[in-house]
Amino acid sequence: MRRVLIVTALATVALVVTVSVAYAATGKLGGSVGPGYTISLKKGSAKVTKLKQGTYTLTVADKASNHNFVVEGPGVERDITTVPFKGTKTVTLKLRAGKYKFYCRPHESTMFGYVTVS
Predict the structure, then answer these.
(1) C-alpha–C-alpha distance, residues 52 and 50, integer Å
(2) Where are the extended beta strands (E) located within the chain?
């Protein structure tokens, strides 16, 4: 009986570790909006246009009180920052295959970019 409990406990720990690794962040992304009419999404120092599906940690530096940072795509519609917020916010996003748009809602026609996730 004691062996069964030990084996069950070890199996449970192995399962938890496996699930935790499966849901670990795929990568870190950095977003920036402002000053002026600029918006960007980067992985390290490179602009992002393509990503693999998975879970990402996104840190957005909002440098202007008249802008915000929004991400929209399959299963995601998030206002990461809002007008008049100025500062840094970090969120976790699960990205599925498809096309995502990041933009400033008040200035969407000129401040936007796209990322394809596969």
Answers:
(1) 7
(2) 27-33, 39-43, 46-47, 50-51, 54-62, 69-73, 76-81, 87-95, 98-103, 112-117
pLDDT digits (tens, 9 = 90+) for 38-90: 999 999 999 999 999 999 999 999 999 999 999 999 999 999 999 999 999 99
DSSP state of 10: H
Token look-up 């809002």 returns 82
Q: ∠ CA(48), CA(80), CA(43), 5° rounding?
A: 20
Question: Which DSSP string corresponds to 48-61?
Answer: PSEE-SEEEEEEEE
Cα 92 to the center of its chain, rounded Å: 5
Tokens for 74? Answer: 């399959």
Kind plus residue range of the DSSP H or E element containing 70: strand 69-73
Cβ burial 79-95 (10 Å sphere, 16+ → b, else e): ebbeeebbeebebebeb
What span, in angstroms and rounded, lies between the C-alpha atoms of 33 and 23? Answer: 28
